[in-house]
Design the sequence.
């Protein structure tokens, strides 16, 4: 009689008039809640939580793909400290965060301001700017490999203008920069939509008051818009820094599986993929590398969110 | 401009009825500002859509046409589908596309069913351990996939599912974020209707299927679209789990094409167009849900 399987506080006074409190009656189908949740819990348990636990355990072993490993204590982590490739990967992934995040916090905001005003055809532009988000990273990577090719469109234009051809994909640093540019290019539309939602909530009285006070467009941007969307900027910063540190596909496609000249463009996740897969994969060592990725990712998230809180208080 | 008509503007008042152009507050936009805006919009348009157009143009240029000329030639002088035929001769591209389609379709079905069920259990059903179940999904959402991908691979090997399409689908087949999205959608429904159905004797499955589920169609559509896009576009996981070329998905096949025929730009261009065209078509039809998904996902993520 009582709504035992419906949860929530609103039930009691509503349908159950004067009856016993609903909690005392046992549910009619005691197994059904678990039946509902079971597929999701099973998949999450087997393919997310169990792999996480086994990553931690494996990182203390010398397990390989075909050989069950033995406990080796902190040997993997000690090896890590002396592995040049690890430091190269850590450097590149960190540089990636430093290069990509400021661009992805600021440029989409400017873009959102550009498409915010409802002028004719604006929905077309909004959709068009979102297209790179929809495309697969592989497609995007290959499009830019061709655009930045020694004989590709961008170099043809540079030559036509008289600058001459640039080896975007052969120099270690230009390669990394180009990959960053591609990441930013692909992310612009996504964060633009997030900013658009935030901008819609900025009270226009603030803009009007600032206008009356004689503030120009730049000043209004800095004193009205930026403070109003600050929490969204922090969110975008958190999302984009986590994604940037885990970069794989862009660099893999543009620099090649071995990570550019002498492997100097290898990122941390590329190193994980290279070390841990295949029939000779060093699962133990790759797990130790993965843990570094995990710890830095969580740390980045906490760092950005804490910076937000400190500024607020 | 057909795209423009289909999309409702994101959250703003409709354009004023008067013929002259006004902004969102009904004030008139000055002409020079309007010109400046359109110039900027077109510049960004060239930057964001231009590369796709260039790729399409390259894929349509025949073997005798110079694709390296400087200054570049933007339009093919003799457009031909020759390169698309060559892609199909070089790699089994239609099989790969079919594999991608199978993976994406399976991912849509499992995510919609699994996350709707689990979301309903988290939002509406009362049982011991509900908080723990919710916490499991929240924790799972925070785990970066890249950090556990090697262990996912060894798990797949233990299950004997590596190098199968099922292995490609399984790890993401009920995304924790989708479960939480569905949970929030169910929580936002009013209780009263379900109470009425309960009083009328509807059991939990009937309430779920007939009352709750039809009310969250929008969120379900968002889950479906992002599941499709995620599976179709995924690269790192299929790259790790698939080693047999006959099982490749389109993205892995493209990577293979690029690795083997990197110097044949027309060929690679045709391959990328095949891979991206279905998603752009899907996006053009269902933009509303793509944009909605960004908003909901960001708040959660």
Sequence:
């Amino acid at each position: 009689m009582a709504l035992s399987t419906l949860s929530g506080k609103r039930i009691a006074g509503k349908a159950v008039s004067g009856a016993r409190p609903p909690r005392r009656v046992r549910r009619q189908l005691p197994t059904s809640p678990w039946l509902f949740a079971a597929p999701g819990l099973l998949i999450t348990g087997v393919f997310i939580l169990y792999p996480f636990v086994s990553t931690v355990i494996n990182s203390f072993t010398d397990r390989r793909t075909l050989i069950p490993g033995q406990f080796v204590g902190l040997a993997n982590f000690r090896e890590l400290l002396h592995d040049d490739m690890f430091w190269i990967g850590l450097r590149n992934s960190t540089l990636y965060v430093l290069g990509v995040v400021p661009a992805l916090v600021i440029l989409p905001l400017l873009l959102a301001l550009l498409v915010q005003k409802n002028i004719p055809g604006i929905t077309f532009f909004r959709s068009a700017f979102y297209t790179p988000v929809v495309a697969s990273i592989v497609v995007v990577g290959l499009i830019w490999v061709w655009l930045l090719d020694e004989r590709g469109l961008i170099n043809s234009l540079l030559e036509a203008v008289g600058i001459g051809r640039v080896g975007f994909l052969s120099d270690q640093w230009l390669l990394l920069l180009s990959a960053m540019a591609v990441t930013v290019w692909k992310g612009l539309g996504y964060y633009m939509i997030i900013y658009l939602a935030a901008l819609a909530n900025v009270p226009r009285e603030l803009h009007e008051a600032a206008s009356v006070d004689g503030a120009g467009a730049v000043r209004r941007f800095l004193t009205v818009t930026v403070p109003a969307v600050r929490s969204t900027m922090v969110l975008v910063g958190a999302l984009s820094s986590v994604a940037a540190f885990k970069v794989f596909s862009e660099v893999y496609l543009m620099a090649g599986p071995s990570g550019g000249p002498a492997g100097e463009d290898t990122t941390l996740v590329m190193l994980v993929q290279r070390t841990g897969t295949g029939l000779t994969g060093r699962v133990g060592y790759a797990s130790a590398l993965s843990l570094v990725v995990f710890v830095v990712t969580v740390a980045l998230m906490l760092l950005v969110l804490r910076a937000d809180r400190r500024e607020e208080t | 401009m057909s795209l423009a008509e289909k999309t409702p503007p994101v959250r703003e008042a409709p354009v004023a009825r008067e013929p002259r152009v006004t902004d969102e507050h009904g004030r008139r936009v000055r002409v020079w500002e309007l010109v400046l805006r359109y110039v900027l919009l077109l510049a960004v348009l060239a930057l964001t859509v231009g590369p796709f157009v260039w790729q399409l143009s390259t894929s349509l240029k025949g073997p005798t046409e110079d694709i390296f000329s400087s200054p570049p030639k933007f339009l093919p002088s003799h457009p031909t589908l020759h390169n698309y035929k060559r892609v199909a001769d070089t790699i089994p591209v239609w099989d790969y596309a079919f594999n991608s389609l199978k993976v994406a379709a399976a991912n849509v079905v499992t995510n919609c069913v699994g996350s709707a069920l689990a979301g309903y259990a988290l939002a509406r059903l009362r049982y011991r351990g509900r908080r723990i179940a919710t916490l499991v999904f929240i924790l799972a959402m925070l785990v970066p996939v890249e950090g556990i991908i090697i262990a996912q691979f060894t798990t797949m090997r233990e299950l004997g599912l590596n190098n199968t399409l099922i292995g490609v689908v399984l790890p993401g087949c009920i995304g924790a974020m989708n479960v939480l999205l569905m949970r929030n959608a169910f929580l936002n429904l009013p209780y009263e209707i379900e109470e009425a159905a309960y009083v009328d004797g509807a059991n939990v499955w009937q309430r779920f299927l007939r009352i709750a589920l039809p009310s969250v169609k929008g969120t379900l559509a968002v889950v479906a679209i992002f599941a499709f896009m995620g599976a179709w576009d995924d690269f790192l996981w299929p790259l790790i789990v698939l080693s047999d070329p006959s099982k490749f998905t389109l993205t892995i096949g493209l990577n293979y094409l690029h690795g083997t025929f990197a110097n044949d730009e027309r060929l690679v261009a045709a391959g990328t167009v095949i891979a991206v065209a279905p998603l752009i078509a899907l996006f053009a039809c269902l933009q509303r849900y793509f944009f909605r998904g960004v908003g909901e996902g960001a708040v959660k993520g």
Notes: Confidence is low (pLDDT under 50) at residues 1-29 of chain A. Chain A has one domain: 76-312. The two ends of chain A are 50 Å apart (CA to CA).
